[in-house]
Amino acid sequence: MAKLLKWLKRNLKGNVKETLEETIKHLITLKPPKCNSEALKSSLRDLMKNDKAIRKEYESLNMWLNADVSEKVKNKRLRVIDKDNRAVFKKVRVVQYNISYGTQTQTQNSNSTVKEVQVVPTNDKELQESDEEQAVPTNDKESQESEEVQAVPANDKESQESDEEQAVSTNDKESQEIDIRSWEVKEEEGKVLVHPSFSRIPQKFSFSPSKQGSYVEPILEHVERALFRFLVKNQEYIPSNIVKEFAIKCHPPRNIDFSDADLLCLLNFIIKNSSLFMVPNSDQTLFHGEYKLKPLDILKSFKTEARNHHAHGITQIEGRWCDEKLQRLSTLSLELVNCLGKFCMDIIHTVF
């Protein structure tokens, strides 16, 4: 390709004819490094794109090349796979979501499990017992030490208090560092814990953790249904070998009919193989709505802000979904379901 570009720079002058086809035929007679019309056109496009001076000098040639690309894109259609080699998805799937209640929750569908770990007293009796344990000395030794502290003279008492304050500040700093390190280790192990450093930004929580679950789970379930129905509806454009390769590489591996595919699996498949459902730089697309020509924008946004936040987001005492994130979840879900096709209205009315 580099040799052909250099050859074109040397031989283009004086060899541009009345039309693009005549120009290509004439250049081939000059015996370039690759005597192929498609290779010449591709190299000419690269030359025009990267060299501003040549593009300005040969404006008509550049215009012909752009028109040739537009005509090819216009005539290009989505590839329909023959019945023997197309993917076949199971029409009926069992999708199970357990809506979480209380402070210890376990959210699960048929393929994935998410755990939220919080250590919180479950009732008033436990709170009262914990308060009483903090208020009562553990043994007679502690009570004796407290009486000895009161018996110390004033000057010694002040010096002792200053020493204790310095020791406490040092200990608090060390314990805080240890706490942060242990929290980071537990986070790497896959546990979602609450840490005080994440509660600095004020956020409004209008729903309790249990109500957040009852609001979020049906939305994620219906988006998953919409993604699967999109694949079933357009399976004639999906080769079976692509589905098989993708299913084998999943962790854990999935069935080739996607009967056990979860939300993340479906999102990743459509994102990775979006070219099966649209022709780049044209209006040939199986997507709909505002994002029909740029579906990756909404797919990736939903994956990051909705699905990943639900699975791995930081859990605060008030829960994982503040009002702002709940509103964002609703907006992303509506936009994604609308992008996926005509059946979206039934799902939207069901969820919202």
Can you walk me through this structure?
The protein is an all-alpha fold and 352 residues long. Among the domains are: 2-75; 105-117 and 202-351, no CATH class. Helix content is 58%, strand content 2%. It is built from 14 helices and 2 strands. It has helices spanning 2-11, 20-29, 37-50, 52-57, 59-75, 124-135, 140-150, 154-188, 209-233, 240-249, 263-272, 295-312, 323-340, 344-351; strands at residues 105-108, 113-116. The protein has a two-stranded antiparallel ribbon. A hairpin with a 4-residue loop joins β1 and β2. α9 (209-233) crosses α11. It is elongated, with a radius of gyration of 33 Å. The protein starts with a helix and ends with a helix.
Summarize the structure.
This protein has 352 residues and is mainly α. The chain has helices spanning 2-11, 20-29, 37-50, 52-57, 59-75, 124-135, 140-150, 154-188, 209-233, 240-249, 263-272, 295-312, 323-340, 344-351; strands at residues 105-108, 113-116.
Strand order of the largest sheet: 1-2
- What's the count of strands? 2
Strand fraction equals: under 5%
Task: Sketch the topology as an H/E string, one letter per element.
Answer: HHHHHEEHHHHHHHHH
Radius of gyration, Cα only, in angstroms?
Answer: 33 Å
Please summarize the sheet with the most strands: 2 strands, antiparallel
Helicity range of the residues? 55-70%
Task: Itemize the secondary structure elements and their pairings.
Elements: H1 2-11, H2 20-29, H3 37-50, H4 52-57, H5 59-75, E1 105-108, E2 113-116, H6 124-135, H7 140-150, H8 154-188, H9 209-233, H10 240-249, H11 263-272, H12 295-312, H13 323-340, H14 344-351
Antiparallel strand pairs: 1-2
